[in-house]
Amino acid sequence: MLNIGTFDTGTNIFLAPLAGCTDLPFRLIAREHGARFCFYEMLDANSITHNRRQSFEILNTTKEDSPIAAQVLGAEPEIVLEASLKILERSRPAILDLNCACPAKKVIKKKAGAHLLRDTSRLYAILKKIVPSVGIPVTMKIRTGFDATDARHIVTLARHCQDLGVAAISVHGRFARQGYAGDVDYECIRKIKESVRIPVIGSGNVFSPQLAKKMFDETGCDGIMVARGALGNPWIFGQIERYLKDGSLPKEIGADEKKSVLKRHLEYLKQYRNMSRKGTTGFMRKIAMWYLKGLPQASRIREKVMRASGYDEIIRISSAD
Is 102 a residue of the active site? Predict the structure, then answer.
C-alpha cells in the first residue's frame, strides 16, 4: 500500500486519467473489478477558469467513486492555481496531480503538458503556486524527456520538484516525441526512483499482470499506473493484484462476461450522462469497440455497432449471441 504525502491510497495500482475515457461510468466499472484508486479525466485549467460546463461535468462522482484524484493541465501559474481551487470547491479529491506528460501537439503549443519538461522555470513557478495553496498532496506526471530520453535532466527536474514539495511522481517511460509508440524505458524510470525520496509510480504498456510485474521488477517503482490497458478490460486491476500476490495467471474472460460488463457500462452511461449531448452515440460506439475486440465474429458485430443509431440498438447488437 502506498502513502502519498499524508494520504494512504490503500493500493499501489492506479487507474490513470484518460481524457475522453475515464468518466464516472468507466470508473465505476473499474472499481467493481478491483480498481481501488482512480483519477478523474484530465482537467484543462483554462476551461475550468472559464466555467465551461462540460469541464465541470468531468467532476461528476458518487460515494462509491472514492478515493479519487484530480489531474490539472495548464501553463500559467495563476490560472492553474485558480483552476485547482475551483476543482476543490466542486469536489473532494485526495490528491491533485499536475500533468507534465501530455504529448498532444495542441497541448504543447499552449506550453502545457510535456512542454513543461523543457520549460522548467514555468513548471517550478506553477508548483510554487499550487503546492502551498491547495491543502492536499500535489503530485505530477512526467516523461523521460521531450525530444529524447534525457535521464540527467529528468533526474534533476524530479529532485527539484521534490524539494518544492511534490509528494509523488508518475513517470511514463517514453519521451514526449514518442507519443505512445516505441519501447518503455524502464532504466530511466529506475534512475528517477533511485534519485528521490518520494514515491515513484511507473506508467507505460501496463497491458497485463505480467507487464505490471515487469514494471515493478525493472524499475523498483512504488506503484503503477494502468491507462490504455484498462480500455474494455476492467478485469486487469484484480488480475494484477492477484498475480502480484501469488502468481495467479488470469483466466480468459469469456464472450458472455464481456458482453454483460459492456451492457452494465452502457447502463451507467445512460444513468450518469446527458444522453442528448452531441457525440454521445459515437462515444457509446467507442466503448462497445473496446469490449468487442477479439470476440468471435468481432468484425461483423463491430460493423453493426458502427452503423447503430443509438443506445437501444447498440445494447441489442452487443448483447446478441
Answer: yes
